[in-house]
Design a protein that fits this description.
The protein folds into 2 domains: about 35-140 and about 275-280, no CATH class; about 170-265, no CATH class. About 35% of the residues lie in helices and about 15% in strands. The chain has helices at about 5-15, 20-35, 65-80, 95-110, 110-120, 125-135, 140-150, 245-255, 255-265, and strands at about 60-65, 170-175, 180-185, 190, 210, 220-225, 230-240, 280. The strands form 2 sheets. The chain has a 6-stranded mixed beta sheet, with helices on one face. The longest helix is centred in the first third of the chain and has 16 residues, at about 65-80.
Length: about 290
Amino acid sequence: MTVASAKGLVDVARSRVEWRPWVALLDAVREAAADRAWSETVPDVPGRQDPATPLLADATIALDGRLLRRWTRRLLETAAASGGAAATLAAASRAAADDVVALFEAGLAHDVATLAALARRFGADPGALAAVAALLPTPLLRACAERLGARVAPTWARGYCPICGAWPALAEARGLERERRLRCGRCAADWPSTWLTCPYCATAEHTRLGSLVPEATRETRKVDTCAACRGYLKTLTTLLPTAADELGLLDLATVELDVAALEHGYARPSGVGAPLRVRLQPRAGGLLGAWRS
């Protein structure tokens, strides 16, 4: 897949009427991530990285209460405007400050139990709330990846993100050398991985690893599969890294690969590859120090 064809897939995602609600959410994320205020929330982390621990693990993040509430309200209102089950999120957009923090934390941790409890409290559809909550931390995580990316150990060999611990959204077979690069769908981090190794369970037995290759796209788009853990990962051929703002759209535009994988009994792992146990606190000082200000 060339740069031009990658751009074509992004255009396809934007053109599909049925995907417009999700594209609207991704556009909201893109605009929010461009706000440099999120850069001020990036925590200091140790420069030396444990070989199995994401950089943000056990970090304390000081968040601006007003920034957090403003962003949460915008994302929930954007989702609610699409109607259907997402319309139930309108009430959640007016949630109290403590609930906003809880929602952000649950989205960051993929805390299914807390998200279900919040959905009941808000009277919101659980699936719709969980989908939106997963996007809430993205502007913060993008800022973290931008600032902390240079601190990722060059020897990082885990399948999950070295910044935020999420499983990769997709892999890129990049450049003329077809180097395998894993891409995080949350913070957009980019890290190397060896071919013929499952990023989820680290199986390297070639007899247990395979591919689903659509006839129409051949080697430019495929699904790498693992018979050991029944996981799959979409792999796209690119010349250059996919821009952070286009990763979500590219993931959406290649949904036919997800469908093929599911039909063959494969699935993406749930949750995250490594828990972060991040602690959130109000940012001290200035006009926006308290959650309830």
